[in-house]
Amino acid sequence: MRMLLGAAALATFVAAPALAQTQTVTDATGDFLSGYTGPKLADLDVTSFSVSYDAAAQMFTLGTTFAGNITAGTPGFYVYGVNTGAGAIRPFGGIGQGNVIFDQAIVVQKNGTGSIGGTALDSNWVAIAGNILTVKVPLSLLPSTGFTPGKYGFNLWPRTGFAGSAQISDFAPENATLAAAVPEPASWAMLMLGAGAAGGMLRYRRRRTTLALA
Fold it and tell me: What local confidence, expressed as pLDDT, does residue 170 receive?
């Protein structure tokens, strides 16, 4: 039994560092911005937002759920701001969102098309299923300006046009950005030390068992 427990502990330590982690925030239903003047459509009301980064594939995955199904042809689209390190753009301080900082923007339409600047996203990278929008973005389209990929900050704001803040319906997260939080090298080192300790304990228990049977 002790040997089995030792093996289980070793497996836990070894399996702990994943190539991708996901961070998620939830957002209240119906919390349209007080200054928003557009139609209060359910697919412009964010209820959750998640970010993950797959280090092996070098791919970000952005997941969003809305209060209702995404309907092509109705007003609105989605903007994901990305802070890759420079954080040069801070346009929303006047509406209480001063910590929404970005240096690049991903724009996704309700018909499933998307772009970063003048670069179109591959159609396979955008998926819409009912009230769920999933967007995959390769790291190559979001080159760093100082941050490691796991530290990139993301924020989502649906809007009905680019004329001003009155066309923004919601923010997720509110007045902040969300990062994938990939383990830092020091964290990996600590996990590997833990794995080594578990392995050493397993070998010690095996020696004790062999002596007891001799």
Answer: 98
Residues 188/165, Cβ–Cβ less than 8 Å: no
d(CA 77, CA 43): 9
Which secondary-structure segment (H or E) carries 207? helix 185-213
Q: Which of 14-23, 75-84, 111-120, 122-131 has the lowest mean pLDDT?
A: 14-23
pTM: 0.78
Q: DSSP state, 14?
A: H
Nearest to 65 by CA among 82, 83, 44, 80: 44
* Structure-block tokens of residue 20: 């991708």
